[in-house]
Structure formats: structure tokens, C-alpha cells
Design goal:
6-stranded mixed beta sheet; 6 strands
């Protein structure tokens, strides 16, 4: 889904800033970089490696350490949420008809307008932000909130100084290609697009507001997330896994609570189960896979690690 999910951690801003203050008091040496890596073992000697990804990056995250390089070398395939590199390559060769078919997914078909789906103040804030980026025209009002959110998010990431082109999954995909490994898709681009379009307008209304309002501090928030990934700390990864959910900032109402419950179920709970099922299938099929999905899906009580343990696998940190 072009990584449109990244801003769930905005709700953690206060906690993040506090932790950053503590973390900045001691320099993190390159030798201390130890991203979390797990080895999953089956009864008959089957092995899979699992690693959590962050979808943006900075140069200091690379190269990967010996544990990760060794594990990747032992595997025949790399599994990612979906192959964003191949998807982008395909899109460069789309015909005009294919381009229109893709973009039509994000356009109202009945003459509707985004003005009817966002709060008036949210629409005004979002429109002003896009105007500041020379990215608004009247035709934009025909696009659904998910599209607006994606555009705003991409600009905010750009402002942060971090780069989605060197996110962990992208770097691993390129490494897999260079070493002749097959790239498997745990989900698919279309699945993530459909998922994005399935969320209630309330989700995007609130996320757009949070994203724009928090952009001045977004670099600190990304710095925290990347520091968390580099350290591979169980407790910090659990904070990330359990905390990456939207916190609605509008009026309290049963309708809103229901929308957020549905969002969290679709985004995390159900996807985690599906990802664990796919991982289980790879192992049973005898595939030697290096399995990489968003870090928020890996840990926690409902994360992939615990789901695989419940299936009888032994899962150890490497």
C-alpha cells in the first residue's frame, strides 16, 4: 500500500519525545546496532528467519550486520508484504488505460466530493497544506480521503529528511535480486490498496489532522522509530507493536469507537493472523525463507512470533 500506514505512531508523540531525551544522552555506537532477528524452527528441522521492517530509512542503518547477512545467505527466498520495487517498475511501463484504471480506484464515481467525507476544518487544513506544496487543484476534490492522506503523508516524509527509498524491505529486495533469490509476496499491492480503501472516513479525517499538526516533530518521531529498530530492544519493539494505532481526536461517540475497533482489527489483528498462516505455509512447503514485514506485526501478544509459537514452532532470537 505504498506504505500509507506509517503515521500510526503519531499518537505516541509525547512518549517518543520523552524517550528521545533519554536516548540522546548516550551515543549509539555502530557496533551496538543489533536489529531484532528471529529463527523459527520446526519439528523436522525446518528453518525460517523473521525480521521486522521499517518502511523509511537513513544511510546509518546499513550495511546490515553479519547475523542478518548470514541468515539471508542461508535462505532461497525473501518474503515481503509486497514487492514494492517490482510494482514501481511495472507502473513506469503502464499504458494510459492502465494508469486510468489504477487511479480510478481513488476517485468518487457518482460526482461525490471529499468535502462530504471530511470535517470542514480538516478539509480546510488539508487543502491549505496541499496548496503550500503546489499539489492542489479543484480536481483533487474528486479523490477519496485515502488518496489525500497518502499524498500528505508522502510530503511529510519528504520534509522529515528520511527516505522511503531506503526502507528495510526495499533494501532487502534489492539484495535478494543481486544474489538471485526469489522475492515472495505475503500480501499483494492490490490487497493493500483494497485495505486502504476499506477504512471509515473517520480514520483518514483524524490521521490527516494528526499528520499535518505533528509534521514539525516528525523527524524526532522517525528518529525514535529507527533507533528502536537499530537496537532491536524487545521492550521498545513491544511499545511499537502495541502503540501503533490511531487515537481519535474528534468527539467521543460510539460510531467513532466502532470505526477504530474495525480499523485496528483489519490493520493489525487479521493481517497478523494471515501473515502467520503464510509463514506457516512456507515452512510446511519446505521453503527456506527470510520473512520480512512491518515491525509492528512481529511482536506483541497478537504478533506473528507468538502466533507461530502457538502453532508449535520454536522461535528464538538470533
Amino acid at each position: 500500500m505504498k506504505n500509507t500506514i506509517k503515521n500510526r505512531f503519531i499518537a505516541l508523540a509525547v512518549c517518543i519525545c520523552t524517550l528521545l531525551t533519554v536516548l540522546s544522552s548516550c551515543a549509539l555506537l555502530e557496533s551496538e546496532y543489533r536489529p531484532a532477528l528471529w529463527c523459527v524452527s520446526g519439528e523436522n528441522g525446518e528453518v525460517m528467519y523473521i525480521m521486522g521492517s521499517v518502511h523509511i530509512g537513513e544511510e546509518s542503518m546499513y550495511p546490515f550486520d553479519d547475523r542478518i547477512n548470514s541468515a539471508l545467505k542461508k535462505c532461497d527466498s525473501l518474503a515481503v508484504e509486497y514487492d514494492v520495487v517490482s510494482a514501481e517498475e511495472r507502473s513506469k511501463n503502464w499504458t494510459q488505460e492502465e494508469q486510468l484504471q489504477y487511479i480510478s480506484q481513488f476517485i468518487y464515481k457518482d460526482g461525490d466530493s471529499i468535502k462530504n467525507h471530511l470535517r470542514a476544518d480538516t478539509y480546510s487544513k488539508a487543502k491549505a497544506y496541499l496548496i503550500s506544496k503546489n499539489a492542489y487543484s479543484e480536481e483533487m476534490d474528486l479523490f477519496v480521503p485515502a488518496f489525500w492522506h497518502s499524498m500528505i503523508n508522502s510530503y511529510v516524509v519528504e520534509e522529515s529528511g528520511y527516505d522511503s527509498n531506503i526502507g528495510v524491505d526495499r533494501v532487502l529486495i534489492k539484495l535478494a535480486r543481486e544474489t538471485g533469490k526469489k522475492v515472495l509476496e505475503v500480501e499483494s499491492e492490490q490487497f493493500q490498496t483494497d485495505l486502504t480503501l476499506s477504512f471509515d472516513d473517520i480514520i483518514y479525517d483524524d490521521s490527516i489532522v494528526q499528520t499535518i499538526d505533528a509534521r514539525e516533530n516528525i523527524s524526532m518521531q522517525y528518529a525514535y522509530m529507527i533507533d528502536l529498530w537499530k537496537r532491536g530492544r524487545d521492550d521498545l519493539i513491544d511499545v511499537m507493536s502495541n502503540g501503533l494505532t490511531f487515537l481519535y481526536s474528534g468527539p467521543e461517540d460510539e460510531e467513532y469507537a466502532k470505526a477504530y475497533e474495525e480499523y485496528n482489527n483489519k490493520m493489525m489483528t487479521e493481517r497478523n493472523k494471515n501473515m502467520a498462516e503464510v509463514a506457516d505455509g512456507y515452512i510446511k512447503d519446505g521453503k527456506k525463507v527470510f520473512f520480512v514485514v512491518g515491525a509492528a506485526h512481529v511482536c506483541g501478544e497478537d504478533g506473528i512470533i507468538e502466533l507461530l509459537r502457538a502453532k508449535g514452532y520454536t522461535v528464538d532470537r538470533v
